[in-house]
Amino acid sequence: MSTPKSLFSRGSALSAGEMLSRAEAQAFLERVVKLSKAETIGAQLAGGYQGNIRFAANRITTAGGVNNSTLVVQSGYGARHAVTTTSDFSPEGIERAVRQSEAIAKLAPEDPENMPLLPPQQYQNVDAYFDSTANLTAEERAAAARTAIDAAKAAGDLAAAGFILEGSGYNAIASNTGMFAYFPATSANYQLTVRTNDGTGSGWAGADHPDWKQIDFKAVSDRAITKARASRNPVAVEPGRYTVILEPQAVGDLVQLLAFSLDARSADEGRSAFSKQGGGTKIGEKIVDPRVTIYSDPADPQLLGQPWTDEGLPLGREVWIENGVLKELQYSRFWAQKKGARPNGGLGAVKMVGGDATTEQMIASTPRGILVTRLWYLRQVDPRTVLYTGLTRDGTFLIENGKITKAVKNFRFNESPLFMLNNLEALGRAERIAGTESGGNVVMPTIKVRDFNFTSLSDAV
């Protein structure tokens, strides 16, 4: 990080993607706030660097890095407000963004759900910035990619494709109410698909962590290669309801969708699976198996998320489902004020507590079932039951008499994570996954469930 003196000496300008310290970001935003002529002003500053490397057909295709910085300004007059965004950090560019937001705010209609800007808040400390990631070189990224490329080449009948994204950045917010928050973080994400050259087999594996040193790239590569080889020449199996073992990535794909549906307003208005017939919500009622606990906590060592929302509302540990019972719903500031409840921000990161069963034990205890590596192309079917449809992908296998016997063609499914978690048979160790279609920091276990609903077959590998 540069020193505060360097920021002051050059005025308000800064270069794209420059990593600012807490003091620098605060000084910069204070200058933005002082430019305002509006009744209220809130400003958000984000910046950083992301390095990347992509490879396909056992060769590196692109490599590079992106610096980026963005300033968001929200001006308000009573219940009228407007937002402008700029990446022009010259003094003229910043003042133009402030004046434009003011001009648009005066023309905007009144927002019936407008909430005042927050006063100063207290935030828990979350250390999600790791030098091992921030100081990474292009050569180190390439070496990590070579773990898959070299192994696939050596095999002679495999093709590896994947990407590695890593970087460092910060997010900061300030307002003329005296509120200020700052959060620096690093991130590293690796996702790999290995295909067999005959086009019949595909294996996937991935890993994610803010600390580069915590990712075992060889283990990820080995897992994807093993899956690809095992998934050759899949056979068709009749769709229907099966006992299914879902690996953590597949669990996250579905359970995160359940977590994001825990909205208090939809439940109060009778529009969600958590609305009680006749009015009210299902808070306090058992909704899934008693072994299920789902919570958010930015300070959890496996999650390490931003401890505040973009409004500056503090985020702490929030238990949404505990021992199968719905404990809490997500309240926005507006809806919490309307209902006399506590605003709790929402789910920036989510974790489902695991158990002690191994995947091998789950397989061994299954007379007939399906092992699923991951899911994709999930789309909502019915919000009232959190019902989704989607497809299995990159490693789907038949289990017979406690053993994996063959690869099977991919399935389309229609399933609700609510139904799925009511049919729970076993829980494995919770681990951080490589992200879902909804993004976010997610920690999930392997689970075994009964009566998972596969509706049709897919010829796609």
Please characterize this protein's 3D structure.
By secondary structure, the chain is α+β, with helices and mostly antiparallel strands. The chain folds into two domains: 4-220, 2-Layer Sandwich (PmbA/TldD fold), CATH 3.30.2290.10; 234-461, no CATH class. Helix content is 24%, strand content 38%. It has eleven helices and 17 strands. The strands form two sheets. Strands 3-2-1-4-5-6 form a six-stranded antiparallel sheet. A hairpin with a 2-residue loop joins strand 1 and strand 2. Helix 5 packs parallel to helix 6 (217-230). The longest helix is centred in the N-terminal third of the chain and has 18 residues, at 138-155. It is globular and about 70 Å long. It starts with a helix and ends with a strand.
List the main descriptive attributes of the protein structure presented here.
PmbA/TldD fold, single chain, 461 residues, 38% strand, 2 domains, alpha+beta, 11 helices, 6-stranded antiparallel β-sheet
